[in-house]
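Structure ticket #2291
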Amino acid sequence: MQQLLTYYNLGGPLMHPLLLCSLISVAVIIERALRLRRSSLIDPAVVEDIQAHIEEGKAEMAVAKHHNSPSLAGRILSRALEEYLNTSADIETSLVESGERGLQVLNNNMSVLNLIARIAPLIGLLGTVIGMILGFEALEDAGVGKEELASAIKVALLTTATGLIVAIPTIIGSTYFRSKIRRLQAEFEEIFIDVIKTVKATSSKASAEEKNDAVGQEKSTSKKEDDAA
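Resolution: structure written out below.
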């Protein structure tokens, strides 16, 4: 620990923004790891319950039950169904719009990780360049030898090493989370497709039943008229 503090002090003032970048990166990585847990985003029991309500013709009940669901999938589906039931939009449009709004949370703070991964090495390089310039100026003025030159270069390179130490784990974390986000989005798309199929099948079944009832009622009316005649 003492050695790290020594290196930190030797690295100069640009070690401070690098430390800040590392703290922010760690905080965002922890936040994304907690937020992107599949259990909090996709609850199979909630999805199945919504599907069951739709099949039973009780979509309104599904909306009321899962409007404030802890599951992201439940909230997106209930709000899409609410829009579908209360407007002239079809189920595909409702799900696309609701999904786009709801899935934005998956990418929260990802831009922060990308920014840190890009600027940390540059800050480190800037520190090295500044350190090299100051070191050579001091060496030129003092006229010292190779050992002093090597020491100055070592100190100057500390910021570059620190920048890479910050950037590499950040890049790894960002890549991992982006891959996980793509997998989650694919799962959400499959859920949306299943719900669309269920809604259309239920709607077709209801239309067929209404048509059969209308035909039966028409036949009954005709028969009554014939009996009366």
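Closing remark: The chain has a mean pLDDT of 84.
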